[in-house]
Amino acid sequence: MTTARETAAQGTRDLKALAEQAGRDLEDASALEILTWAAETFGKKFAVTSSMEDAVVAHLASRAFPGVDVVFLDTGYHFEETIGTRDAVQAVMDVNVITLTPRQSVAEQDARYGPKLHDRDPDLCCALRKVKPLEEGLTAYEAWATGLRRDESPTRANTPVVGWDEKRQKVKVSPIARWTQDDVDAYVAEHGVLTNPLLMDGYASVGCAPCTRRVAEGEDARAGRWAGRAKTECGLHG
Ligand code: SF4
């Protein structure tokens, strides 16, 4: 007789194989085709995550799957413009925005670890305020989509359009992995997609306020994140 654990392990193996096959099959597909595949394959067990830097993937996903869940991590350290972008996305797009928050408020974290943990131990701060809440928030889903692009940084250069998220044991969909910044700009212009106002103010990548700065001409888009530190990723995509 097959145990529940064996059935779950088989399910995980099946999902992983499905993801790897889809990654090969959909490598040349359009972003909309990739998201349509995800919507048809996973239905309500599929969600899009958005940092609210722009709403491009959320917009694409709403075309493939009206009413799709769009998961936003509110770390407590966001710029007002980012929260405003989230509210505008919920108001004007056919999506269901779900806001995840860390277990501790910033004040509670300060009391436990001391103030400005982001300056002293950003890996721990990201683990508490991003990685853990996302892990918990995604438990209801089998697949999630991100806005990762291969041209953003060397660490993202091999991002598959569909792959296996080993850490969370889920299918990870990156429908605009092959896009360039010009492709994003063209999509935004063509569809009038909401973007974070900070992108018009010298920021090329928008994260938490204490860990984000404007970038200079010629710097790569993520150079303004954790500037001056070896850290380049928050751990959500590792
Ligand atoms: Fe903390 Fe900075 Fe990570 Fe935000 S980006 S969770 S403020 S370390």
TrEMBL record:
Cofactor: binding details: Binds 1 [4Fe-4S] cluster per subunit.
Instruction: Specify whether tRNA processing is a keyword of the entry.
Output: no
| Residue ranges the record marks as coiled coil | none
Q: Name one Pfam family in it.
A: PAPS_reduct
The primary gene name is cysH
Which residues catalyse the reaction?
C234
Looking at its record, which EC class is this enzyme?
oxidoreductase
> Entry's HAMAP family?
CysH
Under SUPFAM superfamilies, the record lists: Adenine nucleotide alpha hydrolases-like
Instruction: Enumerate the PANTHER family for this protein.
Output: PHOSPHOADENOSINE PHOSPHOSULFATE REDUCTASE
Q: Which residues bind [4Fe-4S] cluster?
A: C125, C126, C208, C211
Q: In which pathway does it act?
A: Sulfur metabolism; hydrogen sulfide biosynthesis; sulfite from sulfate
To which species is this protein native? Streptomyces cirratus
Which EC numbers characterise this protein's activity in its record?
1.8.4.10
Q: Which UniProt keywords apply?
A: Cytoplasm, Iron, Iron-sulfur, Metal-binding, Oxidoreductase
Please give the function described in this protein's UniProt entry. Answer: Catalyzes the formation of sulfite from adenosine 5'-phosphosulfate (APS) using thioredoxin as an electron donor.
Its main localization is cytoplasm
Where does it reside?
A: Cytoplasm
Q: Which cofactor does it need?
A: [4Fe-4S] cluster
| Occurrences of domain Phosphoadenosine phosphosulphate reductase (ranges) | 50-213
The name this protein carries in UniProt is Adenosine 5'-phosphosulfate reductase
Give the family from UniProt: Belongs to the PAPS reductase family. CysH subfamily.
